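stuck on this chain:
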Amino acid sequence: MAVIKDVAKRAGVSPSTVSKYLNKPAELTDEYKIKVEKAIKDLDYRPSSFARSLRTQKTNIIALVVPDIVNPFYSEIYNAVRSAAYAKGYTTILYTTEENLEILELVLTQFSKISADGLILCFLDEDEIIQRFKEVQNIIPITLMSWDINNTDFSSVIINLFDSFYHSAKYLLSLGHKKIAYIGGPTVSRISKEKLAGFKKAMLEENINISEDYIFEGKYLFQTGYQAAMKFMQLNECPTAIVCGNDVLAIGCIKYLQYNKFAIPDTVAVIGFDGINLSYIYDPSISTIVIPIEDIGREAVEMLINKIERPGSKNRQAIYDTNLVIRKSTKKDAPIVLEI
């Protein structure tokens, strides 16, 4: 098994430089970071979290807090964070809040028991939950994965939801669709409101009246997408395209359409959001707005470790663009691409 001296030799640096990469990476130049990171990968070096905790009185544990794990998106976020944290010698523990303050209090109690060095909060929506974490960030470093560019109370990795859903609708409009329906998350959710606002802006720019019959909101579940499609396709004037608040809703929507012999995309085009693996495995493959999950996971880990190593450092934000990927749910002759 490789040790720090082996990594240093492979990278052409001193052992102290490798140690600094593992413990205080912000103090190294990008050139040294790249050298050490490559040597670690080549040698499959695994830092000893136990040994480091004895030296630093740290646990080398990061806690990732997500709303739930029913949505595959959060499983993929966890994997991205886990991989990035592991490369830095940290273990990742996953918690869910179910957007529930009582569950949150239990989660906060667990943090005190495991003595996590820091927390990453992933797209937690309710103001009360964010406020509760704001109260404890003077005790433990916290980084957000968020949509809210105006929240400067934490270091944050930001995804612009408004623009993403604006571009979803614009894409369908460019295909000639005018009767476009929308399936979103819970009405009270700030995240859901942001997505719907982006969709509405695109429609209103084309002077298209948005009928309430074309809006369906519920939980981010397969069943919601299925029920929404059922409602839409029983209207006197059915939509010819549907924008979905995430890929899970899109899959549920498409499942209803398939069962009931509606041709996709000839009769109804469907677009999702998130870019989870299921979106391209599913048949038909689902056009979607892709979030760069690995990139935001890595960025969140680096932000958090910087906060752990430099408690007084200023909060910062990193804004990531999303990417429209066109597949067979909106374009019949879209190429089949195996994404690995």
